[in-house]
Amino acid sequence: MRRNQFARGRRRRAIALASAPLVAATLLSGCGSQGGPPTLTWYILPDNGGSAARAQECADASGGAYQVRIESLPSTATAQREQMVRRLAAGDTSIDVVSLDVVFTAEFANAGFLRPYTAEETTRLTAGMLPSPVETGMWDDQLFGAPYKSNAQLLWYRKSEAAAAGVDPTSPTFTWDEMLKAAVGQGKKISTQGQRYEGYMVWINALVLSAGGEVLQDVEAGRNAKPSLASPAGDKAAEIVGNLARSSAAPVDLSNAAEEQARATFQSEEGMFMLNWPYVLAAARSAAEAGTLPQEVVDDIGWARYPRVLPDRPSAPPLGGANLGIGAYSEHPDQAVALVECINAEPKATQYMLDESEPSPYAASYDDPAIRAEYANADLIRESIADGGPRPLTPFYTDVAGAVTQTWHPPASVTAETPERTDQFMADVLAGRRLL
């Protein structure tokens, strides 16, 4: 999902550009030379240098056991998946470690593209982690993706506007319906992701889970899994999406809005509420420091847990992040596991959160004094990740998400008939009777 380009990182290590088709490559050396220790290639998700920093530390600490070569994947989740599928389907032995968006781990594991971690490795690699991120790395009761970073969306609000409306977004029972009523009453906007892409699936899935339902049941059945949006939970999700999109609280660009468009609306004079990832606070602070955003706007930003769908049921905040897998065709799997264990250690995850504004999967990170000094909402982020709801953990996630976002777009077209229509379309896509 979102790739933060606004973090005020204390480590800004540039990644040197290399030849096509790779975006970037850096060789991080331990003590080896040609004919010496193996060079492990780690395909990373783009960041501001934090991954390269972690790899450098591990190469230096390996005592010459390995070197690390960094290859940067494209900026979007779809392009990342396409590149890795092509390489791994061809049995590419150069892929030792790969960073995967959490929604693709099951697909890659089921296809035989990843080496499963042993039970003993799993215990070591996940010790101290929050359970929800670990769940995203599991397939067929085995760990294939060790959580590298995690994420959960929060509710962001303008404190002055909430006060004027007489609502308390931090109330445990604050709902989407209350939020819409308040925004309409104030003549303000609710910013979220309505573009036909993964961010829109994040919103729909979170609404369904928060209402007690599922987008897909029996995921273990593969293509025979059961689409399940035609349910009270799916109906309520459709009601919320449609009501917001057809209301005066909908931004004019809702059907084309991704994370950054949502942030721009929220920070404008029209902004009141926003659903987005934790990076937005660091981004706003950086903008204020650069003089492109008034400091009073930053001071007016409040945060709360993702709103409820039903007043008597806790919300399931959207869960994001990335996992680390071992390429199934790696010629150095033991060293690759050692590299994962090193780069994924809790202190490095904590530092990465400081450097890149990407939340840690470790519970203890949020008690670190440096984290608490930087993140006034550290406890809320940890709670939201712990209670976060994953998108369907299925090998056919691309088909599932494509069926949902196609039939639910544009948001203003969503009606009471949409969930059943989506289930029929999704079932046909999974069975191969229709194409996306």
Description of the structure:
With 436 residues, the protein is α+β, with helices and mostly antiparallel strands. It is built from 18 helices and 15 strands. The strands form 4 sheets. Strands 1, 2, 3, 4, 5, 8 and 15 form a 7-stranded mixed beta sheet that branches.
Task: Describe the secondary-structure layout.
Blueprint: E1 24-28, E2 39-44, H1 50-61, E3 67-72, H2 77-89, E4 97-101, H3 105-110, E5 114-115, H4 119-126, H5 131-136, E6 138-139, E7 142-143, E8 146-152, E9 154-158, H6 159-165, H7 176-186, E10 189-191, H8 198-210, E11 216-217, E12 226-227, H9 232-245, H10 259-267, E13 271-276, H11 279-290, H12 295-299, E14 301-304, E15 319-327, H13 333-343, H14 346-356, H15 369-374, H16 378-386, H17 397-407, H18 418-431
Parallel strand pairs: 2-3, 2-4, 10-13
Antiparallel strand pairs: 1-3, 4-15, 5-15, 6-7, 8-15, 9-13, 9-14, 11-12
